């Protein structure tokens, strides 16, 4: 198959803008589209991309079309809505969705595109905005191996660990499981730090010991200090994490497999979202534990 040289990138938010910039730096001809046109123009000004007026216009100029939006309804709108990418993609092109959506949605989208002669890869990422910035994301890909190999150079421009997870939908499923584990871990960390504060522990020795022991984790490294400092500048929004946990729970239910701790985490993140933390970083889940601790103390003996 011909090498991928021209990439349409649709969805230039916190993650997508950084990923598209890395494609530009790697020498790809990037055609950017975003619902807010100013984002695409910024990519063009700062990184040399071209700007498309619609997803269809972007896709018509590309070998591969990438979508990076919030969830399946937004993906399907960009692909199949008015002036969507499906109108512009030529036979033999590849469509890659790098959003985090349900595996059932990935398979449905893949089937629709196959009828139009377009290969589809579900290729969500993990690493948050700092790794999107420096091109060190982990990218997990589901779909045809031939299409995967064709797009691999573009993946390698955006990530350092590229994993072909299996057939259609498996990239999405791996991502949901990973994010759900992260959500559970972060919620537990928030409760643990709340207990430590109630015990008047100095956080420095606590963090040092836990980081060196069996309680160490990526969430401790990434979210321990922000939770202590209440620094919730969004690297990954709480509402996005809640969405992913809910997708994972739905998939587990469809498989007939319980995921009890994921259910507990869903309740905590949902409570945080209701309290107004949805647009903040998911580290803000610590506030649910802190609120529960204050209520328990007021109601205690």
3D structure, described in words:
This protein folds into 2 domains: 6-167, NAD(P)-binding Rossmann-like Domain (Rossmann fold); 173-299, N-(1-d-carboxylethyl)-l-norvaline Dehydrogenase, domain 2 (Orthogonal Bundle), CATH 1.10.1040.10. It contains 14 helices and 9 strands. The chain has helices at 14-25, 37-47, 55-60, 72-80, 85-88, 103-114, 128-134, 145-158, 170-198, 203-212, 218-229, 238-255, 260-277, 286-299; strands at residues 6-10, 29-33, 50-51, 64-67, 94-97, 119-122, 125-126, 137-142, 159-166. The protein has a 6-stranded parallel sheet, sandwiched between helices. Strands 7-8-9 form a 3-stranded mixed sheet. It is elongated. The termini are far apart. The mean pLDDT is 95.
Mean pLDDT: 95
- The amount of helix comes to 55-70%
The main sheet comes to: 6 strands, parallel
User: How many domain regions?
Assistant: 2
Strand content: 5-15%
Q: Quick one: CATH class of the largest domain?
A: Alpha Beta
Q: Count the helices. How many?
A: 14
CATH architecture of the largest domain: 3-Layer(aba) Sandwich
The CATH superfamily of the largest domain is: NAD(P)-binding Rossmann-like Domain
CA-CA gap between termini: 72 Å
SSE series:
EHEHEHEHHEHEEHEHEHHHHHH
Q: What's the alpha carbon Rg, rounded to whole Å?
A: 21 Å
Global geometry: elongated
Q: What is the SS-derived class? A: alpha/beta
**CATH fold field value of the largest domain:** Rossmann fold
Low-pLDDT runs of 5+ residues are none
């Amino acid at each position: 198959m011909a090498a991928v040289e021209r990439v349409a990138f649709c969805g230039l938010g916190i993650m997508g803008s950084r990923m598209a910039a890395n494609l530009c730096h790697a020498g790809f001809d990037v055609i950017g589209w975003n619902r807010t046109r100013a984002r695409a123009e910024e990519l063009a000004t700062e990184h040399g991309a071209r700007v498309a007026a619609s997803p269809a216009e972007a896709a018509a100029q590309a070998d591969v079309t990438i979508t990076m939006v919030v969830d399946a309804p937004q993906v399907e709108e960009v692909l199949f809505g008015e002036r969507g990418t499906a109108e512009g993609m030529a036979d033999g092109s590849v469509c890659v969705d790098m959003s985090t959506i349900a595996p059932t949605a990935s398979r449905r989208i893949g089937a629709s595109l196959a009828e139009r002669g377009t290969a589809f890869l579900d290729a969500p990422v993990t690493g948050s905005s700092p790794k999107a910035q420096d091109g060190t994301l982990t990218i997990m890909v589901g779909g045809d191996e031939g299409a995967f190999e064709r797009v691999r150079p573009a993946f390698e421009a955006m990530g350092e660990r590229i994993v072909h997870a299996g057939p259609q939908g498996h990239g999405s499923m791996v991502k949901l499981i990973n994010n759900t584990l992260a959500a559970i871990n972060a919620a537990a960390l928030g409760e643990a730090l709340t207990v430590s504060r109630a015990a008047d522990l100095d956080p420095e020795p606590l963090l040092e010991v836990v980081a060196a022991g069996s309680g160490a984790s990526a969430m401790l490294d990434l979210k321990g200090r922000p939770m202590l400092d209440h620094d919730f500048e969004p690297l990954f929004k709480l509402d996005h994490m809640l969405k992913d946990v809910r997708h994972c729970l739905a998939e587990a239910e469809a498989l007939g497999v319980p995921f009890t701790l994921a259910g507990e985490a869903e309740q905590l993140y949902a409570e945080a979202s209701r309290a107004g933390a949805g647009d903040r970083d998911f580290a803000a889940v610590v506030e649910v534990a802190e609120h529960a601790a204050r209520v328990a103390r007021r109601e205690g003996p």
